Amino acid sequence: MMPQTPAARVCSHCDGFPVVHITTGTTPDGRRRTLAATCPACKGTGTRRTLPSALIRAGK
Questions:
Q1: Which are the contacts of 17, defined by CB distance < 8 A and separation ≥ 6?
Q2: Coil vs helix vs strand at 47
Q3: Among the listed residues 15, 36, 14, 7, the one whose alpha carbon sits nearest the alpha carbon of residue 24
């Protein structure tokens, strides 16, 4: 039997949308300038790390 890996949990800070683009305005020729902002909690992965169940039980 193959070991099963736990499913990745969605980051509670960004709800799975780790990178957003913020519009800073338009240039004189009509193009938009954007900045990319990443979630500081998950560092742009969209998932959060799960703790092993042994640590959860021991750390009550």
A1: 39, 46
A2: strand
A3: 36
Local structure of 20: helix, strand or coil = strand
pLDDT digits (tens, 9 = 90+) for 4-59: 666 668 888 898 899 999 998 888 999 999 999 999 988 888 888 765 555 555 55
Burial of 31 (0-12, 13-18, 19+ CB in 10 A): exposed
Beta-strand ranges (E) seen in 1-60 are 9-10, 19-26, 32-38, 47-48
Taking the alpha carbons at both ends of the chain, their separation in whole angstroms is 31
What's the token pair of residue 38? 């990443």
Length of the chain: 60
